[in-house]
Specification:
The complex is a heterodimer of chains A (644) and B (434). Chain A starts with a strand and ends with a helix. In chain A, a hairpin with an 8-residue loop joins strand 11 and strand 12. Chain A is globular and about 85 Å long. Chain A has 644 residues and is an alpha/beta fold. In chain A, the strands form twelve sheets. Chain A has a five-stranded parallel beta sheet, with helices on one face. A five-stranded parallel beta sheet of chain A has the order 18-27-21-22-23. A four-stranded parallel beta sheet of chain A has the order 2-1-3-4, sandwiched between helices. Chain B has three domains: 190 residues, FAD/NAD(P)-binding domain (3-Layer(bba) Sandwich), CATH 3.50.50; 75 residues, Alpha-Beta Plaits (2-Layer Sandwich), CATH 3.30.70.20; 160 residues, FAD/NAD(P)-binding domain, CATH 3.50.50. Helices cover 23% and strands 26% of the residues of chain B. Chain B is built from nine helices and 25 strands. In chain B, helix 6 runs parallel beside helix 7. Chain B is globular, with a radius of gyration of 23 Å. Classes of the chains: A alpha/beta (644), B alpha/beta (434). Chains A and B meet through helix 2, helix 3, helix 6, helix 7 and helix 12 of A and helix 1, strand 5, helix 2, helix 7 and helix 9 of B.
């Protein structure tokens, strides 16, 4: 039992003290059993107060510490560290949340808020009385990182990790690297094209001795935890041998009878079952799309590199950390949204980019030369009724940049931008300005009043009530309508599900805290990068990829990790293995083992998060949480409901 | 002078101890590199530590900044020099840089100062408080702000009358007028430039009346009025101390405006104005808030939702450019603006106007690089020589840029940029080790 507890009650600069009478809280615990000192402070987290706490612990010989402040998500670690600097074991610290749980929740009831704060602080004091010193669980960590997704963010992260000194497994689901950027010719920001950027990064990846690239590869199983993840990777064969003669290859493509929509060109063209995305493909080796292949064998007859004997392989990889750079999907409008799939001159922005790629001196789509282009912005983003409430960030800038390119590349182009308020943030403003100077017309409506379409011959009439000309009804006869589609999370979230990565309101992968831990997830050891986390342009993706690489590297760099000791513990005598704990555990931390001819549960301490889900389901009460025993909880309840 | 300089050796020099420089320094220090951070102000934490709450999560800025600041201050691999200017930086070869830094005297022994503020009470000199952006005054002996790090007094020698009152009042006797400037020669292997940004000075747009009409303030002043360590403990209009009930925000003040030499968008003003509007509706439940805007740039994660939330809370958004502001006798202000939607010029009366001032480059650091050119972009931010693949790279190999030194960005982007700079610095340093 502690005899010299220090209690600190934080004003949070008004965030708490505007609604909670902190002085009353302080007085109410001052005389409690074991409490040696009780203070209030403007900002408990400020350096000056931290120093004061360290001094108090040392000079007054405190044996337990409570800080009543904000959520432990923000500052539990801060004050544990303070306790440690004072010379105490950090588990002699207990955090009381009187901001998120009190002042912010009960800003309409100051009296009630103060009473609740008093109880919460008393409960924390009750808990700290029983607190015991604990040692962290030490685990060895594998000095290797799995980077999932070999788009530009994944490749850049892999290069960085390798240069820092880690082994890297770069795992790409497609047969070719480069992700979305390989499908994008002109880029904003520099003169470099998407293809050139992908080439540059691929060459650099290949130049790293400690990066192993797998294409056609998918993670199918995951076990273990931070420091020691074990991944099972399924590698699908390309059915092509390394040495491949170009002439033979062309013959093989020519004889292939299968024709399917080419996803690389966003289905505006078709390809054979033998395919490559040449010239922007890496590795420069074609592949056979075995799902669509009819096994007719014609290609084998003309091309010696075709090899149908290649088998799917499974590899087991051991890594210390996983970096997810799985990217995004372009929004695919449902049939009928702004005429998509119904009116034949309506295309999406990614399709438009591919059309520009294939048109040299004239812009031609479906055999017709294009002069008047109507761009409809915010398709699939900032939805009024749909689920995508977010702004896709890149589209205004990228589309305006493309519109300028089109105008400069082809003669007689007229651009009409049907927008909802242009968001060319930062330096991208100059392209908005340039496009206006080039004579592009901007027409705006608000979300509840989108432009409407009408088909007239081979043109599409786009009508808008334009807010920029005091709601005048304007119309444009467009040869081509480009739906400026946003970014959406990957349809296939199998890797997210496998690793149990939480997703945000926007359905993209969610970080722990946007500012404090922007590339880490609640799954220890798994970091996120690039557009898998939300819409980003290339430069922003690179910054997040490099930040994630740094975080992943810092986890594995020393070869050792310290984990929280506050995990579940099994009483071997009373456990009768019924499996209920295993069912309840969200982290798969339980294992069935045999001890003395009896099956019992075993906790993998490196995987257990100490969430406590297993405790109430155990019929024999054989589970305890270290650092939060029944005795702790009961004493806290007694403090919370004193007269019960 | 050269002979008198003390020589210091570190792996990395980080210029600027704001949130981006801090992130870089912490990452590098955690990997094991020795870092020297120099900060020209008397406290670290940059602009972020002075903010109220941050969008779109409405976390209090202090709650996020102070733990980072505290970690920086006590990290065994980080040395912080405040009140310190970088005089010059020379590249002697790959992984060899030499910088000369000048530490100005604080006239206070920082280690001995307890932050008791008795010197402040004793000091007879009152001047405008730059950390409260001119809203209130401070003494010539003062603690910059309550959550400053280090939380130690500073003597503002420009304004000090050398009366000695502070010296007599100081219990630990830590005020020392004999301190002098110190110059150091710093040998490092790499440099991270995280010098941040400046705010647009609205005196350059006289038609908005800033500096003349007391109830026209900047967004940074409103930030201070809303901050936990706010000077008035509520929101007041400076002209007469009345609580405002009809506030206006003028967006794009000094941004997207070629007439003041800044054609680009500042990227943060829309969002911080929307945030302040939400906070104002909380602080002044009866108040109306109107935001005059051209385009709302709510593009980041959760930003558009935050914008929609402000609309739902009752913030009025008017698409239109404010032309002029005039003052009525009672201190209220008349905004003459183009209502774009209606297609007419209108006038509206508000009792307080906040100018949402833009982000400008903090200039000067590029000139400190003597023997190699630190290239700037057309807007005078530090040029990112490989913005697509290595965004922290600059025109000098081994010199990296973090945060708003390379252009306008919000806090999450600054932190990621700081992380990115530390990663690229690490790669650069590893090349020497191999």
């Amino acid at each position: 039992m502690k005899k010299k507890i220090g209690v600190y009650i934080c004003h949070c600069g008004g965030n708490i003290s505007d609604y909670v009478d902190v002085e009353r809280v302080r007085k109410s615990v001052e005389g409690d059993e074991g409490v040696f000192l009780a203070k209030t402070t403007m900002f408990a987290c400020a350096d000056s107060n931290q120093k004061q706490m360290v001094e108090d612990i040392k000079d007054q010989g405190l044996d337990g510490v409570v800080v009543a402040s904000c959520s432990p998500k923000l500052h539990l670690l801060t004050f544990r560290a303070v306790t440690e600097r004072g010379g105490l074991n950090k588990y002699n610290y207990v955090h009381a949340n009187i901001r998120e749980q009190v002042s912010w929740a009960h800003s309409d009831d100051k009296e009630g808020a103060t009473e609740k704060a008093i109880k919460i602080v008393k409960a924390a004091v009750a808990k700290v009385r029983h607190a015991e010193s604990l040692d962290p669980i030490e685990v060895k960590s594998t000095k290797a990182v799995a980077v999932i997704g070999a788009g530009v963010a994944g490749m850049r992260a892999a290069i960085e990790l390798a240069e820092a000194g880690s082994d890297v497994y770069l795992i790409e689901r497609e047969f070719f690297v480069g992700g979305r950027v390989s499908q994008w010719d002109d880029l904003t920001l520099t003169e470099e094209s998407g293809k050139e950027l992908v080439t540059r990064l691929y060459d650099s990846v290949m130049g790293q001795k400690n990066v192993t690239l797998f294409t056609g590869a998918e993670v199918v199983e995951n076990s273990g935890s931070v420091g020691n993840f074990e991944l099972k990777v399924k590698v699908t064969p390309r059915h092509f041998k390394l040495q491949c003669n170009g002439n033979e290859l062309q013959k093989a493509i020519d004889v292939c009878p299968v024709e399917v929509p080419d996803e690389f060109n966003f289905n505006i063209t078709t390809r054979k079952a033998i395919f490559h995305n040449f010239p922007s493909e890496y590795p420069q080796l074609p592949a056979i799309d075995i799902k669509n292949c009819t096994r007719c064998g014609e290609c084998e007859k003309v091309c010696s590199a075709v090899d149908f004997s290649q088998k799917t392989e499974y590899l087991n990889l051991k890594v210390g950390s996983i970096l997810l750079a799985t990217g995004f999907d372009p929004y695919e409008p449902p049939k009928g949204e702004f005429g998509y799939g119904e009116i034949d001159n309506v295309v999406t922005f990614p399709q438009f980019k591919r059309i520009i790629h294939y048109c040299d001196d004239k812009l031609i789509y479906r055999g017709k030369e294009i002069k008047n282009i109507a761009y409809i912005y915010c398709v699939g983003s900032r939805q009024v009724d749909g689920p995508n409430k977010y702004c896709s960030r890149y589209c205004c800038t990228s589309n305006i940049h493309a519109a300028i390119t089109v105008k400069k590349k082809y003669k007689g182009i007229h651009n009409f931008h049907f927008n909802r308020g242009i968001r060319t943030y930062g330096k991208a403003e100059v392209w908005y300005d340039e496009s206006s100077r080039l004579g592009d017309i901007y027409l705006q409506s608000f979300e509840h009043d989108p432009p409407v379409f009408e088909k007239q011959g081979d043109k599409t009439i786009v009508k808008i009530k334009d807010v920029l000309t005091s709601d005048r009804e304007l119309e444009v006869a467009a040869d081509l309508v480009v739906l400026v589609t946003g970014m959406v999370p990957r349809k296939d979230n199998s890797i997210g599900n496998l690793l149990k990565i939480p997703r945000g309101r926007d359905n993209f992968f969610n970080e722990i805290h946007m500012k404090l831990r922007p590339v880490e997830t609640v799954i220890d050891g798994v970091t996120i990068a690039g557009a898998s986390q939300g819409p980003k342009n290339i430069s922003e993706s690179m910054n997040s990829a490099l930040s994630a690489a740094t975080k992943s590297f810092s986890l594995i760099n020393s070869g050792e990790l310290q984990l929280e000791p506050t995990v579940a513990k099994v009483n071997e005598e009373t456990c009768e293995w019924c499996g209920k704990c295993d069912e309840a555990c969200p982290y798969s931390a339980f294992e069935k083992i045999k001890v003395n001819e009896k099956f019992i549960a075993k906790v993998n301490a490196a995987v257990c998060k100490g969430c406590g889900m297993c405790l109430p389901v155990c019929p024999t009460n054989a589970l305890q949480l270290i650092g939060l025993s029944d005795e702790d909880v009961e004493s806290m309840i007694d403090a919370l409901i004193p007269n019960y | 002078m050269q002979e008198q300089m003390k020589t210091l050796e570190y792996d990395v020099l980080v210029v600027g101890a704001g949130i981006a420089g801090g992130e870089s320094a912490l990452n590098l220090a955690n990997i094991g590199y020795k870092v020297l951070m120099v900060e020209k102000e008397p406290s670290i934490g940059g602009k972020m530590i002075l903010l109220s709450k941050v969008f779109p999560t409405l976390d209090c800025a202090a709650c996020i900044t102070t733990p980072k600041v505290s970690e920086i201050a006590r990290h065994p691999n980080i040395t912080v020099f405040t009140d310190t200017e970088t005089e010059k930086i020379n590249k002697k070869g790959e992984h060899q840089f030499e910088a000369v830094i000048l530490r100005k005297p604080r006239y206070v022994d920082v280690d001995a100062c307890t932050g008791c503020q008795l010197c402040e009470e004793a000091c007879p000199v009152s001047v405008t408080d730059e950390f409260q952006f001119g809203l209130v005054g401070r003494k010539a002996a003062y603690i910059p702000f309550s959550i400053a790090s280090p939380r130690a007094a500073v003597i503002d020698i420009e304004n000090c009358i050398l009366c000695g009152a502070c010296e007599r009042a100081c219990p630990p006797d830590c005020i020392d007028f004999t301190q002098t400037e110190e110059k150091f020669l710093v040998k490092i292997k790499s440099v991270v430039v995280a010098t941040g940004f400046d705010l647009f000075d609205p005196l350059k747009i006289p038609r908005y009346g800033y500096g003349k009409f007391k109830n026209v303030i900047t967004s940074m002043q409103m930030e201070r009025e809303l901050a936990p360590t706010r000077p008035f403990n509520t929101v007041l209009r400076p002209g007469d101390g009345k609580m405002p009930d009809n506030l206006a925000y003028v967006l794009c003040t000094g941004s997207r405006d070629k007439s003041v030499g800044n054609p680009i968008c500042s990227q943060i003003c829309c969002m911080y104005s929307i945030k302040q509007a939400q906070l104002l509706l909380g602080a002044l439940p009866m108040a109306d808030v109107t935001i005059y805007y051209l385009h709302i740039r709510a593009f980041g994660k959760g930003f558009n939702e935050f914008y929609a939330q402000a609309q739902d809370m009752g913030v009025t958004f008017i698409k239109g450019k404010v032309g002029t502001i005039t003052e009525k006798e009672n201190g209220n202000l008349i905004l003459r603006y183009e209502d774009i939607e209606a297609g007419v010029v209108k006038e509206a009366e508000h009792d307080m106007v906040v100018l949402s001032v833009g982000v400008l480059p903090h200039q000067g650091i590029s000139e400190k690089f003597e023997n190699q050119k630190l290239k700037l972009d057309p807007f005078h931010f530090i040029d990112q020589s490989d913005i697509l693949a290595s965004p922290a790279k600059t025109s000098i190999e081994g010199v990296f840029v973090a945060g708003t030194a390379s252009g306008p960005m919000d806090i999450p982007d600054s932190i990621l940029s700081g992380g990115s700079a530390s990663a690229q610095t690490t790669s650069y340093l590893r090349k020497e080790e191999l």
